[in-house]
UniProtKB/TrEMBL annotation:
This is Permease. It comes from Pelosinus fermentans JBW45. It comes from the Bacteria. The chain crosses the membrane at residues 20-44, 56-82, 88-112, 124-145. Keywords: Membrane, Transmembrane, Transmembrane helix. The keyword 4Fe-4S does not apply. InterPro entries: DUF6803. The keyword Transmembrane helix applies.
Length: 169
């Protein structure tokens, strides 16, 4: 079966790549969504614990994904021979998740949004989280597509790429 580099990255070095690149970021993003809901639903004095958890998860996830981004952009991306548009969309969307996630961390640390009210910060937090969820789902959708469906020919000159060798200890 022909697969995108996104899917191949998750498939090699089992189970570590799957855990590092999918399970941890997605579980933390889902926890961020859940705590975000409770923070909004219990606005006021009842939301204290949820808001604290939301802030901690947002900071940790932003820096974790920045590490994932830097690791992939320096060790994997330079070696890729693209497998068509599905491959580019999957990998590009996945990597673009660093923008909203690291922005959430910076927002929580007070680096950005200093002059904004609590409601404006919450709105920005929601928007950034929504952007991440959209790009993550675009990455998953195009990552699962057989790249030949979108026109890539593995038999074309330079089209047949060796399997990824990106491994973690």
């Amino acid at each position: 079966m022909v697969m995108t580099h996104y899917m191949e990255l998750l498939a090699v070095n089992q189970p570590w790549n799957l855990i590092l690149y999918m399970v941890i970021p997605v579980a933390l993003a889902e926890a961020l969504v859940a705590t975000e809901f409770f923070t909004v639903f219990l606005r006021g004095s009842n939301a204290g614990g949820w808001k604290t958890a939301n802030k901690a998860i947002g900071i940790f996830l932003g820096f974790y994904f920045l590490g994932v981004f830097l690791n992939l952009i320096t060790t994997v991306i330079p070696t890729i021979q693209w497998r068509g548009i599905a491959d580019i969309l999957a990998v590009g969307s996945y990597l673009s998740g660093v923008i909203p996630l690291f922005s959430i961390a910076l927002l929580e640390l007070g680096v950005i949004g200093k002059g904004k009210s609590d409601d404006e910060k919450m709105k920005l937090h929601f928007i950034l989280l929504t952007v991440f969820l959209v790009v993550a789902h675009v990455a998953m959708i195009f990552g699962m597509v057989d790249p030949t469906i979108m026109g890539w020919d593995p038999n074309a000159v330079g089209g047949n790429t060796p399997p990824m060798q990106h491994k973690h200890p």
